[in-house]
Design brief:
The complex is a heterodimer of chains A (about 290) and B (about 270).
Chain A: H1 2-35, H2 51-56, H3 60-91, H4 97-107, H5 114-136, H6 148-176, H7 180-188, H8 193-204, H9 206-222, H10 225-230, H11 242-251, H12 256-287
Chain B: H1 2-32, H2 37-42, H3 55-62, H4 65-96, H5 100-112, H6 121-130, H7 136-159, H8 164-172, H9 177-185, H10 190-206, H11 209-214, H12 223-234, H13 238-272
Helix pairs in contact in B: 3-13, 4-7, 4-10, 5-7, 7-10, 8-9, 10-13, 12-13
The chains are: A mainly alpha (about 290), B mainly alpha (about 270).
Chain lengths: ~290, ~270
């Protein structure tokens, strides 16, 4: 009797979340896999086998978006982690109250949504940069977001500005967990702060790197809001990232089956990257 | 001793420079929102020569600010309530009845966090549309679906440090699992509840894409949605667009000032789990 009762409570406690995750994630995922084999336009669909997937290989716009996103992710991951770690090192020095203020400021952009961040930077890059160009006469500052290159770097800047403070928080928590006596021992042995950083802090930050790389990589691949608000793919779709390409295919061109095939490829790509990351983490943990 | 002092000043100087760079975009938006349209073009970088407050009332009206603020608040609060309620319960079941079934469910939760939204949105919208659920109730339910995995993990981790002897004592007193959980265990999870609320609020309050697909109707717009349409309309009238941006940012900055410590702590826990 008691066991039966327990089972009843077990499922009653789990039921709401299982229902929500099933209806919002699993059933759509399965239905999506099916949709990717059809020519769905949102109203009618007929099974067309692998046609969508083979079409992907010669879709120049999609391949361009993919390559653009990969380049964006590589540059962003390096940039965010260098700046984030730099910020973390900076605010963990003993500067009293100031370091708290610095930390607050560095983290602030992270709380603002991507749409609003994108619009803020549209103003900065287009209007304020033009202002700088007029005053200084430096041509570097004029014509931002008007071509693919400045569009790319504009997106990178917004991402760095938003994510660095977040990654900083992760590095801070790991830096703080390094036992103080190790640093003291190094100082007594006469190590400079430069040596302490390279020989002690950096190796001990290994798990922080894993988490931060994973988070930045996953976030860089998923960028949509910033893309929409900053460039909206302009000029001529050349700054369109994968997420936006899928959206536009589905909701502007009404090729939902085809867009869903892109979505599945995108899912496999993101999952493969994440799992590779986890694999290497495990391996390194064993090596240590 | 001397080098140590120099080192300290160098750190402070560097911190100030980066802080300035990080704050400057906000500052520029703010000061330009008090300029006339003409001055935004002639003097973008500096303090306004002629202050104007006219941009704000117009932007406030055009953004339908009171309504979009309330819409955002309603969606966020409703979603948070169901997420806290149901994910804490689910985590409790998983942690108190370990076994094959619980491991499988835990593993499935982990997998859902890898799935990008763009891979789901097309079938999600089409399925919910078929059952007439593209409305605020549907959106709240979707927020539960997308938010529960991470919240379950956080609660699950916290439950490990709640001793089972507490439950057992309550069972002897004749309480059933619902009573044990809500009266005895849940109050002990308060710090985690704060983290769950903060992490989910930031995500849901700032979310654009999901609400744009689910509640894209005039009168239901949340702040990010309203901002998107507003901005598209006014890119040639920067003075209004900028005042609108300031209005959209203000609630977040104010909250951040008051809850800074909790927010940073919550983010740390959420990210390093």
């Amino acid at each position: 009797m008691k066991r039966k009762n327990e089972k009843y409570f077990y499922w009653a406690f789990l039921f709401p979340c299982i229902l929500a995750v099933s209806l919002v994630i699993f059933i759509p995922l399965l239905y999506g896999i099916y949709t990717s084999f059809t020519d769905s336009d949102g109203y009618n669909m007929a099974f067309i086998g692998l046609e969508n997937y083979s079409r992907l290989l010669s879709d120049n716009q999609f391949l361009h978006s993919l390559w653009f996103t990969i380049r964006f992710a590589i540059v962003s991951v390096i940039g965010v982690n260098v700046i984030g770690l730099g910020m973390a090192l900076l605010v963990t020095q003993r500067t009293g109250k100031l370091s708290n203020i610095f930390r607050t400021i560095f983290f602030m952009p992270n709380l603002v949504g991507g749409i609003i961040l994108g619009f803020i930077w549209q103003f900065i890059l287009v209007k304020a940069f033009t202002g700088i160009a007029q005053i200084t006469g430096i041509s570097f500052f004029s014509g931002w977001l008007a071509d693919t290159t400045t569009g790319f770097w504009g997106l990178v800047i917004v991402f760095l500005w938003q994510m660095s403070g977040y990654i900083m928080i992760i590095y801070i928590s790991f830096l703080n967990s390094i036992p103080a006596d190790i640093n003291e021992a190094a100082a007594i042995d006469g190590a400079s702060s430069w040596q302490t950083f390279w020989r002690i802090k950096l190796p001990m930050l290994a798990p922080a790197f894993t988490i931060s790389l994973f988070l930045t990589l996953a976030n860089a691949f998923k960028v949509y809001d910033q893309n929409l608000a900053l460039t909206n793919g302009a000029p001529f779709g050349s700054t369109e990232m994968v997420a936006m390409n899928i959206y536009n295919t589905a909701f502007f061109q009404y090729q939902q089956g085809y867009a869903q095939a892109k979505g599945i490829v995108y899912l496999l790509l993101v999952a493969a990257i994440s799992l590779t990351q986890v694999y290497y983490t495990r391996k390194r943990e064993i090596d240590l | 001793m001397k080098t140590e002092k120099m080192h300290k000043w160098l750190v402070i100087l560097l911190g100030l420079v980066v802080s300035l760079a990080w704050l400057y975009p906000f500052v520029l938006i703010f000061i330009n929102s008090f300029k006339t349209r003409r001055e935004i073009f002639t003097n973008t970088l500096f303090w306004p020569e002629e202050l104007t407050f006219e941009n704000y009332p117009r932007a406030y009206d055009d953004l339908d600010y009171t309504r979009s603020f309330m819409n955002s608040l309603m969606i966020t609060v409703a979603s948070i309530i169901v997420i806290v309620l149901f994910s804490s319960m689910a985590a409790y079941a998983l942690s108190r009845y370990p076994g094959k079934m619980s491991s499988v469910i835990y593993f499935i939760c982990a997998i859902t966090m890898l799935i990008p939204f763009q891979s789901l949105m097309i079938p999600l919208v089409s399925l919910f549309g078929r059952f007439d659920m593209l409305n605020r109730v549907g959106l709240t339910f979707m927020n539960l679906g997308f938010g529960s995995s991470m919240s379950i993990f956080l609660y699950f981790g916290a439950l490990r440090s709640v001793p089972k002897s507490l439950d057992e004592a309550a069972i002897l007193d004749g309480a059933n699992p619902f009573q044990i959980f809500w009266r005895v265990v849940f109050p002990l999870l308060k710090p985690t509840t704060v983290t769950v609320i903060i992490l989910n609020s930031i995500r849901i309050w700032n979310d654009y894409l999901l609400p744009s697909l689910v509640i894209n109707k005039d009168g239901m717009y949340t702040i990010p949605l309203q901002m998107y349409y507003f901005f598209g309309q006014y890119t040639t009238q920067w003075e209004l667009a900028l005042a609108g941006l300031v209005l959209a940012i203000i609630p977040i900055i104010l909250l951040y000032m008051f809850l800074q410590k909790h927010i940073i702590q919550g983010i740390t826990e959420g990210a390093t789990k």
